[in-house]
Structures are given as C-alpha cells and as structure tokens.
Amino acid sequence: NAGVTQTPKFRILKIGQSMTLQCTQDMNHNYMYWYRQDPGMGLKLIYYSVGAGITDKGEVPNGYNVSRSTTEDFPLRLELAAPSQTSVYFCASSRQDAGSYEQYFGPGTRLTVT
Amino acid sequence: AQKVTQAQTEISVVEKEDVTLDCVYETRDTTYYLFWYKQPPSGELVFLIRRNSFDEQNEISGRYSWNFQKSTSSFNFTITASQVVDSAVYFCALSDWGGSNYKLTFGKGTLLTVNP
C-alpha cells in the first residue's frame, strides 16, 4: 500500500492564481481531511469528508473548496490564491471518525503564494 | 472548546538523556481521545499513540512511555535514553465530539533536538 499520496510536493503560485492539490489514499478509508500547517502553529483543519459525496468545513475553510467523488480521492481547490495561503498542506485519512482512530498523513505539499 | 497546550516550544538534550514532553488539554467531554504524532525533519507526520479517556494506564513502547492523568488533564510523553534520530517536532492532539463529528485539535508542537 502506498498509503496517502499528495501531489505536487512543492508549488509557487502568483497572487490570484488557482490550483488543485491532489490527495489519494489506497487504504479504503472513509474519512479524509485537509490540514494546513503554519510555522509554530500546529495543524489546523480546513475541510473533511466522511465519505464519497459528503464534505464539511473545518476550522479554516475560507479560500478553499473540496470535493469527494470517490472513496480514494479528496482534492483541495484554492481559488484566487493569497499570500496568507502560503503554508504546508497535509492530507490525511482514517478508518472511521477522528475520535476513535488515528489519522494517516500524506507527505505534504509546500505552497508559496507571491 | 477543546484546547491543547504544549508549553515547551523547544527542548535540547544530549544523546542518552531522558526527556519528557508535556501536553495539557482542555475539553468538556467525558469521552475523548488523545494522540501523539512525530514530525521528523523530512516533514511527514507519524502516528505514535492513541489513548481514550477511559484508559488511564500508562503505556510503554520501547524507549517511549506515556503518562495519562485525567486529574491534571495531562498526557505527557517521555523518551528514555534519547537518540539523535528522535530529533523531531512532536505534536499532542485531542479528539472530542464537536456536535456532528469528532474534531481533532493539535497543540503547537515541541521541537526536540538531540545532540550527539
């Protein structure tokens, strides 16, 4: 199993551009999550999904969108990139809800908006 | 609202020293879960342990041990005989019921540097 994979690993965007961060897991997990990690701030939840077709906002959803058309994939869309979205983005998945089971994380995408 | 405090921003030790990473949490729920994750310099997040609120037994895994005390809302992590490979950022996290789903809240992390 590859676990959770994310592409790209690095990306530089200009202000106002858009992009999609890809996330795929091969563990047949129902739950998937997107976090952002800012220096010295821990991880903050952007969006999560409890299954295909179901998504919900986390703590910091503004400026992002998600979709979940399959169990495996959970892409994160940035529209009109802003410097405040410069961060490291992690995708994660878990077998069931975050309360009961640990989350498995992808390697991260380092995004810079200039 | 749930909160996780890791008061130690950075710790530096010499190899073979024991080191304890502190984690204090706040929650109104009686059922909750606590986690520790390791983030080495390569950047990935590695799951270390999960503990539920009904199980206050301490746990030992090799050089790692965890001390869970509900009375002080703490879930501390001790590394015995530290090694250079233990150098990483360590995150404590709390998961409790957010009304519609369990929500995971991370502390800000403790950077551990183990010097040879």
How do the strands and helices of this protein lay out in sequence?
The complex is a heterodimer of chains A (114) and B (116).
Chain A: E1 4-7, E2 10-13, E3 19-25, E4 31-37, E5 43-51, E6 54-57, E7 64-66, E8 76-78, E9 87-94, E10 104-105, E11 109-113
Parallel strand pairs in A: 2-11
Antiparallel strand pairs in A: 1-3, 3-8, 4-5, 4-9, 5-6, 7-8, 9-10, 9-11
Chain B: E1 3-5, E2 10-14, E3 19-21, E4 24-26, E5 32-39, E6 46-52, E7 59-61, E8 64-69, E9 74-79, E10 88-97, E11 102-106, E12 110-115
Parallel strand pairs in B: 2-12
Antiparallel strand pairs in B: 1-4, 3-9, 5-6, 5-10, 7-8, 8-9, 10-11, 10-12
Unreliable spans of chain A are none
Strand content of chain A: over 45%
| Rg of chain B computed from alpha carbons, rounded to a whole number of angstroms | 14 Å
Record field, number of beta strands of chain B: 12
Overall body shape of chain B:
globular
Q: What class, by secondary structure content of chain B?
A: mainly beta
Strand tally of chain A = 11
The helix content of chain A is under 10%
Comma- or semicolon-separated keywords:
heterodimer, A: 114 residues, mainly beta, seven-stranded mixed beta sheet, four-stranded antiparallel beta sheet, 11 strands, B: 116 residues, six-stranded mixed beta sheet, 12 strands, 0% helix, 56% strand, globular
What does this structure look like?
The complex is a heterodimer of chains A (114) and B (116). Helix content of chain A is 0%, strand content 49%. Chain A is an all-beta fold and 114 residues long. Chain A starts with a strand and ends with a strand. Chain B is mostly beta strands and 116 residues long. Chain B contains no helices and 12 strands. In chain B, a hairpin with a 4-residue loop joins strand 8 and strand 9. The termini of chain B are far apart. The mean pLDDT of chain B is 91.
